[in-house]
Design goal:
Elements: H1 9-12, H2 18-69, H3 78-81, H4 92-100, E1 114-117, E2 125-128, E3 159-160, E4 182-183, E5 192-195, H5 230-233, H6 236-239, H7 257-267, E6 299-303, E7 320-321, E8 340-341, E9 349-353
Parallel strand pairs: 7-8
Antiparallel strand pairs: 1-2, 3-4, 5-6, 6-9
C-alpha cells in the first residue's frame, strides 16, 4: 500500500492558537493605552497654542482701542453692567465687542438675529448679531457664526453663540436663541474678559484690588466686579464646579470671602503685593493672607482650558484660590485652612494687558 504524504508544517499551522490571539490582543490594548493619551495630549497642546494666539489677538485689539479712544472698550459702563439689578447675563466680553466689532443697530427690525437689551436707566439698545465683526475697519474683524439659531456653536475661533450650558437661560436669552456672539476658545468655550473699572481711579480706598459681587451706593468703588461675568459664571456647567461659580440662584457665590480671595488671586499682580494690607474697614490683615497692591493689568483675558471650567474647585465647594506674591513658596496652610489652591494648580489660560 503506497504511503500517503504527510501534511506540511505550514498547513498544520494555518491558524493562531487561543494563547497567541490573547497575546496579540493584549499587545494592541497596551499600544492603544499608550497612544490615546499621547494623541489627546498633542491635540490639547495644539488647542492651547491656538487659544493663546486668539487671546493675544483680542488683547492687541483691546490695547489698540484704548490707545485710540483713551478708554477700555465697552458700550455700557461698569456701574451699568455690574449693577445687581442687571439680570440680562450680558457679559463684559460681549459689552467690549460692541466697541471692538460693532453690532449696535438702532434701525434694525425685530428678526431672530436682532435682540433688544436694557441695562440700568439707559434707553433700550438694539443689537444686530450678524453685524458683529462683519465689517472692515473694526478693531476685531472676525465673523460671527451660529447666531440666531437654536444650535450650539462649538467650532471655535470666532465670535459665536456659546453652547447652551455656558449661559444661563434668563430673560434676554429666551430658549438660548437671542445670544450675543462671544469669543470662543479652541475647546468651544467662551473666553472671559475682566475689565478694570476706570471710574474707580488707580487706587480705591480702603481696599486696593477689590472684587465684590456688584457695586452699591454705599460701597467704595472696586477695580473689578464679579457681576461683569455673571453670564458665564451662572451657567450650569460652572455653578457647582467653578471656584467663581454662582450659587444656584444665579447670584454671587455664597461663600463670601472665599470667592473674593479667588478673584484677587486671578486679578492681582503677583509682582506687587501690598506691604500693609487692610480689610474693607481699614483693619490690618495678617501676613498669612496677602493681598495685591495693583491688578495684573487694565484687563485680563481668561480661557477655562481643557476642563472647560473657570478655576475648577476640584469637587470641593469650599475650595478657593489664594493670591501668592512672586518668589514666595507655597505655604502648607494659611490661617489653619487647607481648602485653597494657587493659580499654578489650574489649567486656565490667563493673559493681562494694558
Amino acid at each position: 500500500m503506497p504511503l500517503q504524504p504527510r501534511p506540511s508544517a505550514s498547513k498544520s499551522r494555518a491558524a493562531f492558537t487561543l494563547v497567541e490571539l490573547l497575546v496579540v490582543i493584549s499587545v494592541i490594548a497596551i499600544l492603544i493605552a499608550i497612544l490615546v493619551p499621547a494623541i489627546g495630549g498633542a491635540r490639547n497642546s495644539a488647542r492651547k497654542s491656538q487659544t493663546l494666539t486668539l487671546i493675544t489677538s483680542v488683547a492687541n485689539a483691546i490695547s489698540q482701542y484704548k490707545s485710540a479712544n483713551n478708554r477700555l472698550p465697552g458700550y455700557f459702563s461698569q456701574a451699568e453692567l455690574c449693577n445687581q439689578s442687571n439680570n440680562t447675563s450680558f457679559t463684559q466680553m460681549e459689552n467690549a465687542l460692541l466697541d471692538l466689532s460693532g453690532g449696535v443697530d438702532p434701525d434694525a427690525t425685530d428678526v431672530p438675529h436682532v435682540f433688544t437689551i436694557t441695562i440700568g436707566t439707559r434707553p433700550p439698545v438694539k443689537i444686530n448679531t450678524l453685524q458683529v465683526g462683519a465689517s472692515e475697519g473694526r478693531y476685531l474683524n472676525i465673523t460671527a457664526k451660529g447666531v440666531g439659531t437654536n444650535q450650539p456653536q462649538s467650532s471655535g475661533m470666532a465670535p459665536a453663540r456659546v453652547p447652551n450650558d455656558q449661559i444661563p437661560d434668563d430673560t434676554t436669552y429666551v430658549g438660548g436663541k437671542f445670544q450675543m456672539p462671544d469669543i470662543i476658545d479652541s475647546w468651544g468655550r467662551p473666553i472671559m474678559l475682566w475689565s478694570r473699572n476706570e471710574a474707580a481711579g488707580s487706587r480705591p480706598d480702603p481696599v486696593k484690588v477689590s472684587a465684590p459681587a456688584n457695586p452699591t451706593a454705599s460701597d467704595p468703588a472696586a477695580l473689578f466686579y464679579w457681576w461683569s461675568n455673571r453670564g458665564y459664571l451662572a451657567a450650569p456647567v460652572q455653578v457647582n464646579s467653578s471656584a467663581l461659580g454662582a450659587n444656584t440662584g444665579g447670584t454671587a457665590p455664597a461663600d463670601g470671602a472665599n470667592y473674593k480671595r479667588t478673584m484677587q488671586a486671578l486679578l492681582g499682580d503677583p509682582a506687587f503685593p501690598d506691604p500693609a494690607p487692610t480689610d474693607s474697614q481699614g483693619n490690618p490683615i495678617t501676613a498669612d493672607k496677602p493681598q495685591p497692591l495693583s491688578p495684573r493689568g487694565d484687563f485680563i483675558l481668561q480661557s477655562a482650558g481643557v476642563d472647560g471650567v473657570f478655576l475648577n474647585n476640584e469637587g470641593n465647594t469650599q475650595l478657593h484660590y489664594r493670591y501668592l506674591p512672586a518668589g514666595i513658596a507655597n505655604p502648607a496652610v494659611w490661617a489653619g485652612e487647607s481648602d485653597w489652591r494657587t493659580l499654578d494648580r489650574n489649567d486656565d489660560l490667563i493673559q493681562a494687558g494694558n
